[in-house]
Design a protein that fits this description.
Layout (H helix, E strand, L loop, with lengths): L2 H18 L9 H8 L3 H7 L3 H18 L11 H14 L1 H7 L7 H17 L7 H20 L5 H20 L25
Helix pairs in contact: 1-2, 4-7, 5-9, 7-8, 8-9
C-alpha cells in the first residue's frame, strides 16, 4: 500500500472513530463518513464493502493488538496470575478505543472476540484441544469470567479484583487439569502361616 492509500485509510478510520464516539454504528452512513474524511464515496468503497466491514476490521485489529501484548497467551492454562494481570493492563491501556468500538449493539462482542482469538492461538499450538469439550468449557469460563469481572468491577481496587479472579481460575484449573490418580491397588491377602508339625511318637 502506497503513502497516498495509507493516508486515505487513516482519514477514513479517524472519521469513523469520531462519528462512532458520537452515535451508534447503525446511525453512521457512508455519505457522512466520506464527507467527514473529505473523500468521495467511491473511494470508501475501494477499501471497504460497508460501514460494518470497517467496524469489524477495527475491532479485530484492537483485539490482535491486545493479544500481541501478552507475553504468552497459553499461560492462561498454566500461569493464570501472570496472564490475568497482563490482560487487565492491556484492556485498561486500550480502554478508550474499546469504549468507542464496543458500545451500543457491539457491547457484547468484545468478550466473544477475545475468546475466539485466544482459542485459535491455543488450538494452533494444541490442535487436540479443539474438539476437547472439557478444554473448551474451561477456556470459555476463564476468558469470559475474567473479562466480565474486570468490566463489572473496574471501579474497585484492581489488585483485589485480580486476586479474586486468580484464586478462582487456579481452583478451576486444579480441579479439571490435575492428573488422575492411578487406581488404588487392592490390599494383598496375607498368606496363612504354616502350622508347626506335630511331633511323631514311635
Amino acid at each position: 500500500m502506497d503513502l497516498r492509500q495509507q493516508r486515505t485509510k487513516r482519514s477514513i478510520v479517524n472519521a469513523f472513530l469520531a462519528l462512532r464516539s458520537e452515535r451508534p454504528l447503525e446511525k453512521i452512513t457512508v455519505r457522512e463518513l466520506s464527507e467527514r474524511a473529505e473523500i468521495h464515496k467511491a473511494t470508501f468503497y475501494l477499501h471497504y464493502h460497508d460501514i460494518y466491514e470497517l467496524s469489524e476490521q477495527l475491532e479485530q485489529e484492537v483485539i490482535d493488538d491486545i493479544l500481541g501484548g501478552l507475553s504468552d497467551p497459553t499461560s492462561l492454562l498454566g500461569e493464570t496470575e501472570r496472564f490475568n494481570e497482563e490482560l487487565y493492563c492491556l484492556l485498561m491501556a486500550h480502554e478508550s478505543l474499546l469504549g468507542i468500538l464496543f458500545s451500543g449493539s457491539r457491547a457484547g462482542m468484545l468478550a466473544t472476540l477475545l475468546e475466539k482469538s485466544l482459542k485459535e492461538y491455543i488450538f494452533g499450538l494444541h490442535p487436540d484441544y479443539r474438539e476437547d469439550l472439557e478444554k473448551n468449557v474451561i477456556l470459555t469460563y476463564l476468558i469470559q469470567g475474567a473479562y466480565h469481572a474486570y468490566i463489572q468491577y473496574r471501579g474497585e481496587d484492581p489488585k483485589t479484583i485480580l486476586l479474586m479472579i486468580n484464586k478462582m481460575a487456579s481452583a478451576v484449573l486444579r480441579l479439571y487439569t490435575r492428573p488422575e490418580a492411578p487406581p488404588a491397588a487392592e490390599p494383598e491377602t496375607p498368606e496363612p502361616e504354616a502350622l508347626p508339625e506335630a511331633p511323631i511318637h514311635l
